[in-house]
Input
Amino acid sequence: MVKKNDESHHRKWLDVFERLRQRCPRRSAAYLCGWVRLPYSTLRRWRTRRRRGEPLIRKPGPQKTASLPVAELRSRVAQLHHGPRRSRGSGALYRSVRHAVSRRELAGLIAEERQSRNRERRSRLHHLTWQAPNLAWAIDATAVRTPTSNRKLVVVLARDLATHYHFEPLLLQSESARENADWLEALLRRHRAPLFLKRDNGSPFNEGQVGQTLAENCILPLNSPVCRPQYNGAIEHGIGSFKRCLLDALDPGQPIPSPKSLRPLVRAVIHLHNARPRRSLHGLSPVQAYFQSDTPRWTRRQRHAIFEWISEKAFEILQTNRERTGRHDFAAAWRRAAVVWLRRQHLITLSQNRKLLPHLCSQQRS
Output
């Protein structure tokens, strides 16, 4: 079959047809076109354009009558507001340059610029690696529903950040702070309490019952910044893979089952996640890495001392930021102070995206 919008391929196809015509001089061009499945009208059009010195194919849409410098167009594309998935202002830009550039070419330039911005944005993010199991947990909730059902099921997951181990999930009809606190208390009784707990700013995880459970077990909370889900990216990634596996196992034509009947399937999905070997864990599975590793322990006195040190450091950072920028954000200062303490204790490592750095360096050199 003939490829579309490929000038070199069309020229090669026409040369092949001409050689075939020389080998079969008694056959008409129309017969040979039917044999190779090439429309005779297309052959005549190609021959005419080749005789005139024109390209065999023309771009779809009206012919462009004006010319626009590429540098100017790229500069105007760079001035657009580029988001992670879309670029705002592309419609107005196309209306101003539609006589010189096709919509497809402009969309390609905008996509190239947006991908470059996304690579640069991801390269500035630091990847945090937790060095000890049961040092920090992350909790989050997700709603699961099928395309044909309006009823949803809320699944609350907890994950150990060092070993990627997922604990027993909680299934609810709707989010509840009281049930979240009871579920978290049961997990803490079964497993030793972590030192930190990363959570979103959602109300079920920040109400009094959950906070009281954390205070009774001397767990230090780390709340994600507003509109920054990548701060808690480990649990976000785990929830994404969990939902894909669960929805693949469910019948899309049936409504969501009740939490009691769905619990065995959810446990099976969690078991498959915990039993799969991970390259980041040097070939171990999350369950092996969690239960076979040496887990650090902190007494209540040590936990109080850590809390006081982080609090004092947070107030120092807050005072410095207030003098420099005039901003007052204690949550951000608390997160920075916690990172300082963890790095001093060699419990975390920070690294940049090694796959994106060489690409950006080569762009800067060029």
